[in-house]
Write a structure and sequence with these properties.
Distance between the termini: 56 Å
Number of strands: 27
Strand content: 15-25%
Shape: globular
Radius of gyration: 24 Å
Length: 504
């Protein structure tokens, strides 16, 4: 994989991103003045830059010293939004560094997205679960040739996986992963696309064979993410305009605007839902893990009875979205049935039982809509006991969640045991205080315990035979982000299982 400086120039010019390039004798725009250089590597990490690297100076935290260090290592060419006083042979100055990096990365890796059939999921809740469902179906349909990029795990060979750092990787990393998947003979890719992926241009220029819009509700509203719900929703809708075909939940909030987006962009759409849509989902009365998909015309040939390992209507809805998306990419009903039946999703609706019969649920529910649906399901399934909820909220992001969690807890919890959940650079007690301030129901008992393992222990000790303990937010995540660092953590499920085994 290589990229010439001349090609860099052409791509940036064609996309109106090039301001000028800087050589030792001054600023220029004439392509003929460019030195003849070929790059065998690209990077946004100054520690991984040498004479054959095209380096991208990006990010609010970028410092000129980083560039100076890279030049000292032999770096010849950098791409940036502003000129720097440096001994680099050439500086390529662009109007938008993130857009430039996305376009040049896909060119460097020889446009790997064109060699894969891609299903991309967005929505406030359910992206990961739906992505796992779609991956399971497509693994069946392709004989194990489906890669996946999810919030929890990434697999580029359909067999082995590693923990993901971001829901949607930086563009340079994204196209590198796609290229690796292609090299591993993968034919399909399932990926999650976050609102931040569009806000920060991580997927700029990328097109999907099918884009799935699951739902929308306020989330990630903060000064460092999305300033308003309108901004958040707009970024989510960008997925529609970059998809060849759309799958939409006809029951979602603000559905008319999403549908209009498809219509005006000329994007064909298939819809599903429990009360509306081309495909109707209903739960079996005999088995809460079995559901039916019906359609008057069945354009994707996916009518049938299906079974998943996770309880809850919302999980069945996600499974329906996944099977419709997989059908667009060539999967049949048999692949969907077999694939869905085998899927397990890390940290989703895991169950344990204490010695006295109390049920413990572990779920990654980490925003308003996911927590509300989680607690509504458990309240319906266990109507006679208390709901004891262990929950925190992350630091330095998604600040609006703190109030939202308080609202849900006021409505559906009996005991709110507030604790730490990736506090980052913030004080977890201060975050807990913000959640508590929004719990306006005096009947809800509020307890503070910032040591998460101790909070889980306390919840288990409190639980009577009819009670339900809900561990929300962390799932099986093996680390906590504390003081900006990933700190080892056993995960809620492992901790709860260990404590129960010890008789707690």
């Amino acid at each position: 994989m290589t990229l010439t400086l001349a090609t860099v120039y052409d791509i940036l010019q064609q996309q109106n991103l090039l301001k000028e390039f800087i050589l030792a004798d001054g600023w220029h725009l004439d392509k003929a003045k460019l030195p003849e250089l070929t790059f065998s590597a690209i990077s946004y990490d100054s520690r991984k830059a040498d004479s054959e690297t095209l380096f991208f100076a990006k990010g609010a935290a970028f410092k000129e010293d980083y560039l100076a260090g890279a030049v000292a290592q032999g770096l010849q060419v950098y791409v940036a939004e502003q000129p720097y006083e440096t001994a680099a042979r050439c500086g390529v100055i662009v109007t938008d560094i993130r857009k430039a990096m996305a376009l040049l990365s896909m060119a460097f890796y020889d446009y790997p997205q064109n060699k894969l059939k891609i299903a991309a999921f967005t929505g406030t809740k359910g992206k990961t679960t739906a992505a796992y469902f779609a991956h399971g179906i497509l693994q069946e349909a392709t004989g194990g040739k489906c890669a996946m990029l999810s919030t929890m795990e990434t697999t580029l060979d359909g067999k082995t996986s590693f923990k993901s750092k971001l829901t949607t990787p930086e563009s340079l990393d994204l196209f590198a992963m796609m290229a690796e998947a292609v090299a591993n003979n993968m034919t399909h890719l399932v990926m999650e696309v976050s609102s931040q992926a569009y806000k920060l241009q991580r997927v700029y220029g990328l097109k999907y064979d099918v884009g799935i819009f699951l739902n929308i509700s306020p989330d990630h509203i903060s000064p460092i993410e999305h300033p308003t719900f309108d901004d958040y929703f707009y970024c989510k809708r960008e997925l529609i305009y970059n998809s060849k075909v759309a799958i939409l939940d006809a029951d979602m909030d603000h559905y008319p605007l999403v549908a209009e987006s498809c219509q005006l962009a000329g994007i064909p759409a298939y819809t599903y839902g429990r009360t509306a849509g081309d495909y109707r989902v209903s739960t079996s009365e005999a088995d809460p893990k079995e559901f039916f998909v019906e359609s008057r015309i069945d354009p994707l040939k996916m009518m049938g009875n299906y079974r998943i390992k996770l309880p809850g209507d919302f999980n069945q809805d996600n499974a329906c979205a996944a099977l419709l998306a997989a059908a667009v990419l060539g999967a049949d009903t048999e692949s969907a049935y077999r694939g869905l039946a085998e899927v397990t999703v890390p940290g989703r609706m895991l169950q344990l039982h204490t010695a006295n019969g109390a049920v413990v649920y572990v779920d990654y529910a980490h925003n308003y809509i996911s927590l509300k649906l989680f607690l509504e399901y458990t309240r319906k399934a266990h109507p006679n006991g208390r709901q004891i909820v262990v929950i925190g909220s992350p630091g330095n992001k998604a600040i609006s969640r703190r109030h939202d969690f308080g609202v849900v807890l006021a409505e559906l919890a009996d005991v709110a045991l507030l604790t730490a959940d990736d506090p980052a650079y913030e004080d977890p007690q201060a975050i807990a205080d913000e959640i508590a301030a929004a719990i306006d129901n005096p009947a809800v008992e509020i307890i503070h315990e910032m040591d998460r393992e101790k909070a889980i222990l306390l919840a288990l000790e409190m639980a009577g035979p009819d009670d339900v303990v809900l561990l929300a937010g962390k799932g099986e995540d093996p680390q906590q982000k504390i003081d900006g660092k990933d700190t080892p953590y056993d995960g809620d499920y492992v901790i709860a299982k260990r404590l129960i085994a010890a008789g707690k």
